[in-house]
């Protein structure tokens, strides 16, 4: 049985609105993207960083592995020291999960980068291509939520 979002008078509301911690997190992400660009000349797009890890001929795999390891270990360490997180809501069907992962990968390849690369770094560099890509990502996300929540009742 799927748990419904909290409601007020029958309308869903945001139960975890934390603007201060969100602003601090956003500032830290921006700072890390700027530092990566200044110190290595690289863009902090996750798909590009991960792609470099998979490239056996890459000579800069060390920092890429450390970056990906940090993405995985940071929430695990935070949970271990008492900062709990809600478990992600995943479909029960593994076929859906695998298909979604493949679609994300194909979209990343087709779009020439991922949401983090275009949205954080590309917009920060005023790249017209990244601005358009981010607008398309966001419009697609809004449409997906509208269809799944309001038309399909999810």
Task: Name some characteristics of this structure.
about 150 residues; mainly alpha; two-stranded antiparallel ribbon; 6 helices; globular
Decide which structural class fits the backbone.
mainly alpha
Q: Roughly what is the average pLDDT, rounded to an integer? A: 84
Total number of strands: 2
Q: State the helix count.
A: 6
User: What is the makeup of the main sheet?
Assistant: 2 strands, antiparallel
Low confidence ranges: none
Whole-number radius of gyration? Answer: 18 Å
- Rounded to the nearest angstrom, the distance between the terminal CA atoms is 12 Å
Oligomer: single chain
What percent of residues are in strands? under 5%
Shape: globular
The helix content is 55-70%
H/E element string? EEHHHHHH
**Strand order across the largest sheet:** 1-2
Describe this structure in words.
- The chain has a two-stranded antiparallel sheet.
- The radius of gyration is 18 Å and the shape is globular.
- A hairpin with a 2-residue loop joins strand 1 and strand 2.
- It contains six helices and two strands, in the order E-E-H-H-H-H-H-H.
- The longest helix has 24 residues, at 128-151.
- 66% of the residues lie in helices and 3% in strands.
- The N and C termini lie close together (12 Å).
- It is an all-alpha fold and 154 residues long.
- Helix 2 (46-54) packs across helix 3 (61-80) and helix 5 (115-124) crosses helix 6.
């Amino acid at each position: 049985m799927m748990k419904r979002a909290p409601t007020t008078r029958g309308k869903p509301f945001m139960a975890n609105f934390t603007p201060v911690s969100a602003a601090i997190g956003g500032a830290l992400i921006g700072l890390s993207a700027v530092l990566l660009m200044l110190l290595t000349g690289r863009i902090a797009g996750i798909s590009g960083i991960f792609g470099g890890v998979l490239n056996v001929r890459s000579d800069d795999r060390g920092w890429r592995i450390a970056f990906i390891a940090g993405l995985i270990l940071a929430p695990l360490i935070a949970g271990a020291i008492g900062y709990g997180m809600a478990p992600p809501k995943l479909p029960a069907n593994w076929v859906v999960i695998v298909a979604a992962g493949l679609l994300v990968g194909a979209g990343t390849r087709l779009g020439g980068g991922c949401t983090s690369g275009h949205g954080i770094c590309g917009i920060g560099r005023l790249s017209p291509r990244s601005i358009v890509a981010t607008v398309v990502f966001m419009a697609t996300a809004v449409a997906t939520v509208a269809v799944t929540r309001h038309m399909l009742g999810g």
